[in-house]
Every structure is written in structure tokens, then in C-alpha cells.
Amino acid sequence: MNTRFTRRSALTKLSGAIAALLTFSAARAAKTAVQKVFAASGAPKDYDPSKHKWLMCIDVNKCIGCGLCVEACKKENSVPEGPYFRTWIERYVIPKPEPGSGQTRGETQVDSPNGGMHGFPPPPVPKDQIEHSFFVPKLCNLCQYSPCVQVCPVGASFDAPDGAVLVDPKYCIGCGFCIQACPYGCRFLNPITKTAEKCTLCYHRITRGLKPACVEVCPTQARIFGDLKNAAPDDPIRKFYENNRVQVLKPHLGTEPRVLYAGLDKEVR
Amino acid sequence: MAGEITNAVVGVLPRFEGYVYPNEAIPHPLWGVLIVIYPYITGLVAGAFIMASLVRVFKVRALEPVYRLALLTALSFLLCAPLPLLFHLGHPERCYEIMMTPHFTSPMAMFGFVYAWYLMAVLLLELWFDYRGDLVQWAKITPGLRGLIYRVFTVGVMDESPRALALDAKLGWILSIVGIPSAFLLHGYVGFIFGCIKANPWWGNAIMPIIFILSAVASGIALCVFVYMILIWVRRQKVDMRCLDMMAMFLFYALVVDAAVEALDWIHRIFAAEEGFFVLQTMIREKLFYTLNLGQVTIGTLLPLLLLGSLQLLRRRVPELIRRRMVFGSSVMILAGVLAMRWNVVIGGQLFSKSLRGVMGYKLEFAGVEGWFMGLILLSLPFIILTVLIKLFLSERLPSGGHAPSDHAR
């Protein structure tokens, strides 16, 4: 037997096998990319994600910290008990500066007991010493350049064409990379399904013409939800834009969130 | 932080100080001790391979006695490298999806391919070409199961002509050259998994891959020293002092470069004092006080630098026995220090909230997948595999012609 020939043919076969594997991978990746927009997202079959662009706006001045949105979200989406939240409310208490301290304000105190689901205890600072106090609802920031989607090793996290950032739970391997990559702490590993989970904007509702549960129950309309591609001139979302100057969270990270806030303070991260 | 408000999440109250996002208030960090061990093991693989390449590519003849040992060490650790990753997944049964439908922007997606490339195309092939001539001989003279094993490993190629052996050596040399960037890729990529996370000021850092590679080279050489000394001790042989001194020298230089780059990283962080600076202070002063100041800096860097550095200056004046003990001690300290460094990176990055307003605690438990017992098992496994490999392929009873690979190489 000619040894050189054997080795060469073995190497040829090996590279053939690698090439076949790569082709197979690429073909499967393409197929999945097409399929998964609708897989496990809860959308009805006739829903066309390319005809919508969802947007969430939050008016911090209107939030009263009642926690109804957090509770509604937990119930609507069967979010497990414990430190697992698709949305939550933070309370910021900024005390007055100590006289003669040369500071503009005291040290900011933040809390979110059980995500603010059952409201908040009395503030930790006596009322007459508080300069500002406000509530900030938080949820997935719907980043245009989402770091969580970027790092998902299997593509289970993906950007839907309508702006929602979704996770396919049948595909997620539960590595937790996306949870580490989300700058806003919006993701968690579901302890029951062992997959990454996050706010879907109540995808099963919005694709049927309903509002997300948190928006639906908000008594002060602090959360405003709309469809940029189908917004009438008097749509609340347009009004919000017209009446407010908006901000996003952690703009320096370049994620370009599409959850827009009015009335934020520099202390909010 | 003065005047903290503790997160009132039931059952996990004492673990947090200041404000952490509600989703971060989980009892254990998402990535635990398994993810500490994963970069540690891949680093040892890369380092041991670089050590072997010193012989094959850079023709450092003094290191020939440890060439095969270094390659076998790299192999036994590489075989265990994916295990901690696999065990920590929420759905290990879906792990094949990483290779079937990889998401190309993910730094984690390429692991399967980089791993497979390194294992199949570099390490196993290089070992095979290096051993083939010996395997053929051993297959002929060894009876029973052992002989059968050697025969299986020859894959039926029994050609012993000088031409075939020269081809083996040449291909092994080429693979070794390909292997150096591959080893850097394997481990630099692990560093990038952490370095790419801009959300985390402790991790998101452009030179993270470099730091990982440099510490890996130091830890890999230290591992070779450790394994070599243990093997010599078990076999009651005489230490090849020329080889040991050479390893000590490379260990020293690797450590100098590693320490310099890590110091540069620290100086930059302290000088720039960016948004997450308070986190850095809390880590150094409280959360990672022992593993960072004592483990990584003192035991892992300063003491070995002192010991190995003094050996470089005063080698001829130090008696052999003391020299052996100093090098062995340094290697153990570096191995511990690099493990502490991986701990500081992986666990440290999860001990503060991304709100930059609070810190979490972490207590390593005994039992469970993320417990220290499991960690110990995963760290012992490569040594068990290595023992078997040494018994099979570095046996004293078998003749070997392949101990001087640079003789065959071009």
C-alpha cells in the first residue's frame, strides 16, 4: 500500500467531511432564520411582522409606583415567583444635601422590593428631607443593536422585524450569555424551563391587536404603547413625542433602545 | 455605600448591599465555579502546547525531555475542556445546536469549531505524526490488549521506511506551526467571551484576550513543570536540570510579560476611573480581597517572580536541590494564582449589579453542579486521563525513537 496516497486520501476525506458539516450547518441556520420568527412567539399565523414597528414610551412623571403593571405581567406571562421579572418598578429617593456640604443633592437611594409588585414601603428618608422622589418602570429596552441577540450562540434570541426582541424557548440552550450581555438586567434564566426569558411586549397580545398587559392595567397611562408604522396623527405615541423631550437608558453603550423615557434623572441607570 | 436600601426579595436578603436589579437578586451567580474552571483548563491546554512548540518550532533542545509530556498534558486537559461548559448549560441536550446552527456574531458560537479544529486538526494529528513510528514498533513487540491499542492507534499505517518517518516529522512540524496561532485562538477566544461584554465594566475590555493568553502560557508551563516533577518523583528518576532550568527561565519570562500587561490594565482602569470605578474599589477592598490581593497578586505573581527571578540571577550559586524546590514551588504557586485570576474575572464580574449601585455576595457550596466538590472532580479528571496516557505512551519499558523531534524536523 502506498502510504502517501493513503494519508492524502484520508486528509481529503476529512476535509470533505468538514465541508459537508459546514454546508449542513449553514443550510440549517438559514432554514431556522426563516422559521423562527413565528416559532413559539405566540403570534397568529396571519400576523405579518414586517407591517408593524412597536414602540414603548414611559412618562416617569405619571408613574405612581402602584405595581399593578408588575403583577399583571407576572400573571399574564406566568413569570415564576421570586427574583424573576419581565418588568419592574424602581423608586428613586434623592435627599436634600446636607447644609454646608457643597453638594447639589444627597446620596440617591434606590429600591424595588419584589420588583415593586406590591407597592413600596414608606420612604427611607423623612419626607421633609426629600428633594426628589419618583418611580421608574423598567422593561426590555427593545434595543435596535441588542447586545443580547448579538451574543446568543445558537440564534435563539432574535430581533423580530416589528422591533420586538424575542427568545425561542424551544431553541435556547440556557447558557446565560444573553443575561450577562444585557446592560439593563432585563433577562433572567427561568428556573422551571431553564431557558432565558424576557419581556416580549406580550407578543401573543400585540399581534392580535391588544395592548401589553402592563400598558392595559396602568391607571395613570405612564406607559404608552404604539405602532410607529400605523400611527394616526392623534395617536398617543405621536402626542408623547410632540409634548416631551425623550431620553433612553445608558445611551453611552450605543444600543439605541426603543423604550423612550420622559422626565428621567441622571441618577437613573 | 452609605444609607443603602437592601432589596427586600424573600429569602436572599443578606446577600445584597445597595441596589441590585431585581433579576440580579438570584441566590447564586449565573456563572459559577464551572465557568471558572473552563477558562482555567483551556488556558492550561494552550500553555502546555506553546511549551511543546518551543521544542518543535523554536528548537529549544534542552526541553526535549518534556516535549511529549507537554503534548499529552495538553491533550488530557483539552478532552475535559468542554465538560464544565456542558454541565452548566440549562439544556445540555441541545448543545449540538451550537455547531448545527451557529450564530456567527456570538463569541460563544465558534467554540465548537475552534475546539474541534484544535483537538482534531492540531493536537491529535500532531501527536499521531509524532508517535506513528513508535506506535508501529510497539504494536509489533507488545502482546495482548496493550498491543491491540497501539495497533488501533496506527490506523493501519505500518510504513516504517525512513521516507515515511521523515514525512511524519515534516507534517508534525507544519502542524506545530499551525498549532501556535490555533492555541492562541482557542484561549484568546475564551478571553473574548468576557471581553466582549460591554454591559459589564469588570469584563468589557479590549485586552482581555491578551491577558488570558499570557496568563495561560504561564500556567501551562507551570503545569508542565508540575507534572514533570511529579512524574520524576514517582519513577524515582533523576531530574534533568538543564531541562528544568530552561523551563524555569521560560516560566519567568512568561510571568514577567503577563504581570506587565495585567499591571497595565490595572493602571489604565485606575487612571481612567470611569463609570464603574467604585465597583473596582469595592472588589479590591472587600469582595475579592483574598483571591485578588493574596491569591492572584502575591502568591500567583510576586512570590514566583521573586523566586524565579533570583534563580535567573544566581542560578550557578544555588544548589540543585534548592533550585528544584524553588522551581516546583513557583509552579504550584503560579497554578494557584492563575486559578485565582480566573475566579476573580468570572465571579468578580458577577458580584456587582449592572445598575452600579450595589454588590452581591457569593458563598461557594459543597454539593450540587456548581459546588466545589464538582469543581474538584472536574479539575482532577484531566490528571486521571493524563496518568492513563502516560502509562500507555510514555512507558519506561518501551523503546522510543521520538524523543528528539527537532532532529527529524527540517
Quickly count the domains of chain A. 2
CATH architecture of the largest domain in chain A: 2-Layer Sandwich
**Oligomeric status:** heterodimer
- What are the segments of chain A in which pLDDT stays under 50 over at least 5 consecutive residues? none
Terminal CA distance of chain B: 64 Å
Strand arrangement across the biggest beta sheet of chain A: 9-1-11-10
Largest sheet of chain B: 2 strands, antiparallel
Instruction: Encode the helix/strand succession of chain B as letters.
Output: EHHHHHHHHHHHHEHH
Largest sheet of chain A: 4 strands, mixed
Q: Round the Cα radius of gyration of chain A to an integer and report it.
A: 23 Å
Q: Supply the CATH class of the largest domain in chain A.
A: Alpha Beta
Helix content of chain A: 25-40%
* Shape, principal axes of CA atoms of chain A: globular
Question: How big a fraction of the residues of chain A is strand?
Answer: 15-25%
Count the beta strands of chain B: 2
The proportion of residues in beta strands of chain B is under 5%
Secondary structure elements and pairings:
The complex is a heterodimer of chains A (269) and B (410).
Chain A: H1 3-36, E1 54-59, H2 68-76, E2 87-95, E3 109-111, E4 130-139, H3 147-151, E5 157-159, E6 165-167, H4 177-181, E7 188-189, E8 196-197, H5 203-206, H6 213-217, E9 223-227, H7 236-243, E10 246-247, E11 259-262
Parallel strand pairs in A: 1-11
Antiparallel strand pairs in A: 1-9, 2-3, 2-4, 5-6, 7-8, 10-11
Chain B: E1 16-19, H1 33-56, H2 67-80, H3 82-88, H4 97-100, H5 111-141, H6 144-154, H7 162-195, H8 208-235, H9 241-272, H10 277-287, H11 289-314, H12 320-346, E2 357-360, H13 372-393, H14 405-408
Antiparallel strand pairs in B: 1-2
